[in-house]
């Protein structure tokens, strides 16, 4: 290990002290006295330097800096270097913080950091605009106080943030926000609120357009079907036209069914679900459906069975639920060969009410399953048309389930059959003879 320059200087200083003491001692005849005095001066000087060093380190005052001589020069240089690199690091951190703040402020979305108790720790610029909170009193504000919405409180407490929720801006009723929450660190959460008013507006325009077009088509179609019926009943004079009239009637009936399905879909989508708190007698509804299913099966003689918990009722919308159940049962008939088995079940499982339809039909290849609930998605266009399908059945099923907070699971094996399972949460369950 090499000793530094400063230490060489220190050794030289000490040697000079010893030399001077020796010369003075020899000249005066008090050799030991001269050494004692030199030692005392040397130690005293170092003690004084130590004191200055202490004050300099504590207060940072330049005047108290030790005289940069010998080992003290090494000590001073070390401290100065350390302070410089510290300052450089601070500057870099500050620059990073500034650019982070500048970038989050440039975000059009409101961003908030809240601690475990729900107190806001940090917000960006957009949050002040979208939520009307000032950056100064941010540390005193509870995030639940901003929206004053039980839905927001419940969502934040749920710890399940997979699906974002929509909220109205607390400063402007016309602004709709989409909230996403990401937990991080120790019980901290990052809240991101996006203005989706424009998207929502476009979605409403699309829904209105489909609903209006469907509505406008309803009357002309009824008139056309009426005339077709009259022409079919005209007897001899129209005999040659019978095949054409039958074809026209079949097609217009299909068109009418599409229009009705589109209108139902629009109603469910737009949340026009008045009577949602109605208690629906599902077992009774399924009894009627069973009779209809057997009639529809006709000569195909499917072996249809129903197993229903007679006491299990559901809070919801009766006609929508009827559409949901019938779409699944009629699909099972349409896609199961003659004499196939169809099992309809209605029961409680793990706190949820479950409606399931099992069939031993043609089944569905796995790659189609995620897309089945899209409007007009068909696995086999020709087969669907032949069975009179509109391609909207499963889209209706999905939307009705959504409006009842339910979930759809499709299990299928190509060539051997399918099971469609609908689960309704306990909040929608109602038992006859009890709540
Ligand atoms: P469609 O009116 O064509 O039946 P749906 O939305 O009800 O429209 O169903 C979408 C597609 O899903 C159907 O075209 C069909 O290919 C498939 N599908 C639905 N139910 C069944 C089933 N039980 N078995 C086999 N395939 C089915």
Write up what this structure looks like:
The chain has 435 residues and is of the alpha+beta class. It folds into four domains: 2-89, no CATH class; 107-198, PAS domain (Beta-Lactamase, 2-Layer Sandwich), CATH 3.30.450; 200-270, Signal transduction histidine kinase, dimerisation/phosphotransfer (DHp) domain (Helix Hairpins), CATH 1.10.287; 278-431, Heat Shock Protein 90 (2-Layer Sandwich). 51% of the residues lie in helices and 18% in strands. It has helices at residues 5-28, 31-59, 71-106, 125-131, 143-147, 150-158, 197-232, 242-269, 282-297, 318-334, 381-386, 393-403, and strands spanning 110-114, 120-123, 165-168, 176-184, 188-195, 278-280, 303-308, 312-316, 341-349, 352-359, 407-413, 417-424, 429-431. A five-stranded antiparallel sheet has the order 2-1-5-4-3, sandwiched between helices. A five-stranded mixed sheet has the order 7-9-10-12-11, covered by helices on one side. It has a three-stranded antiparallel sheet with strand order 6-8-13. The longest helix is centred in the first third of the chain and has 36 residues, at 71-106. It is rod-shaped. It binds adenosine-5'-diphosphate. Residues 327, 331-332, 335, 359, 361-362, 364, 372, 377-380, 384, 389-395, 418 line the site of adenosine-5'-diphosphate.
